[in-house]
Amino acid sequence: MSVAFLADKTQSDISIKDLHNAAAKLGLEIPDGPDAEDYLHLLQSVEAVMKQIRCSEDYIHPSLSPVETVALRTYWEPRAEDNSLNAWRHRCELVAASPTSTALRGKSIAIKDNICIGGLPTTVGTFTELLCPDGHLRVSPIDATVVSRVLAAGATLKGSANCENYCASPLSYSAATGPVHNAWKKGYTSGGSSSGSATLVATSMIQLRDGTSSEEAVDIAIGGDQAGSVRIPASYSGIYGLKPTYGLVPYTGAVPLAPMLDHLGPLAGNLEDVALLLQVMAGYDGIDPRMTPESPLRYQVPEYAQILSDFRTCQRDGRENLGSGLTIGLLTESFDVPGVSDEVRDTVLRSANDFFAAAGAKVVDISIPMHRDGSLIWTAATRLSMSEWVCQGKTSGFLSFLPPHLDARWPPDQRMYELLTATNPAIVNVMLSGPFLQEHFGPGIEAKAHRKAFELRAAYDKAFAKVDILVTPCAPTVAMPHPKMQADTEEPSSVMEKLSVAVGVTTNTAPFNVTGHPALNVPCGFGRALNQPEVKLPIGMQLIGRRWEDATLLKAAAVFEEGRTLASCGW
């Protein structure tokens, strides 16, 4: 390591006391004398470097400059009557002035509120005072890569969709603006953390069925997924939600939760829109360090929509059925993890067996014992340092472009503690875990968990030598009622009451975030709402494919749909 330059000591206010304080935090003692004076000079020098960078003009990467739109970029708070499910955060009406394709023309889209939209604030589901020291939301000076791409494809961007507080909840009660409601039943969870995205798409689907319309609906949406935050809301909301292969879709311009887990993915009411949106979003952008040599360049991105269309309609070399040659593996351990209800287990097993078989696919049981440890590996691989990324806004160590308009409050104070304990105590748990784990385990345990993630990936890959697709339940139950929050007139839920309802929700989804395999929620039935058996709520089935074979995953979902159609016709 080199030293950039040696500062003028007389221009610094750093004293020998500051040096001793810094050393004490590392458990060191530096005696006064020549060594201490030299180390002090080095600290004064690095302070001068940081001051110079802090005072310099910021840089906006040209490819992240906001796309020119037909009208000036403005935003507004949604009216209460147009936001009864609290799915919107901010509204807009953005259409590219010069789109480069018509792939998404006529499609309305919402963007999860941890993804930067030029000219709009980004709140990450939390409180303004925790992001902006002066208490005023700053608008984003950039379009995230995926935002630029959907605008360039002709989509109409309708606004930012509410998400969970710091994107850290698989349920939908924690947003600073209040709970986001399920489109099928108000007062019930829509799943998190892409809660608003799922509710807006599900509302559109319900309205299409009922022949109604409102401002609380979009055709498609983009969500983020670190443990299931696209798939779980899709499962609770009865729509499709895809977590693509890690590194297929650039994360640039989205607030990270943990770089090794971060994914952006499409939510839609039908499979064709999932394929189309994936095709528009995917491909190397030259900025995101999550992308690998395996990531396709833009011109190499498969034409997922055309692949799906051809698979559904073209002649298939004399094969008798759409699913001929496809082997579906029911991941046995996933059906008896704690928390999976009998109703969900039976519905997923029955629909997978019946509908895949009806379309000509082979369905087998397959055991992957290490799947039981997947969520444990997920936790150990990120918990030590997660608060550095999501709460403190630190970089991952690789060259990256974080949202420049956010200035996270750190260190936390009592006010921050109280706000988050009242809304999302999971974040307080993340903040406490960092220093605790650092003291009692050190970074070596996180490094070992990363090695275990490779072992877990190998276990799934071994199974994929025998089957083409794995099947698990997605969310372990149907949507449940929201816990009581601070704003309720009755006494709010305790910390454990808020968190206990979320325990185990991502057991079947989180493992595929650490291994990078693509995973898709497919609606597969309905179950009974808690305490209201007359209310029917969606059940989701998760399909998992080989890494970089996202197209095969889409085809498998099409086979399932074909089988469901054939079964309903009395095949």
UniProtKB/TrEMBL annotation:
<feature type="domain" description="Amidase">
    <location>
        <begin position="100"/>
        <end position="554"/>
    </location>
</feature>
<dbReference type="Pfam" id="PF01425">
    <property type="entry name" value="Amidase"/>
</dbReference>
<dbReference type="InterPro" id="IPR036928">
    <property type="entry name" value="AS_sf"/>
</dbReference>
<dbReference type="GO" id="GO:0003824">
    <property type="term" value="F:catalytic activity"/>
</dbReference>
<dbReference type="InterPro" id="IPR023631">
    <property type="entry name" value="Amidase_dom"/>
</dbReference>
<protein>
    <recommendedName>
        <fullName>Amidase domain-containing protein</fullName>
    </recommendedName>
</protein>
<dbReference type="InterPro" id="IPR000120">
    <property type="entry name" value="Amidase"/>
</dbReference>
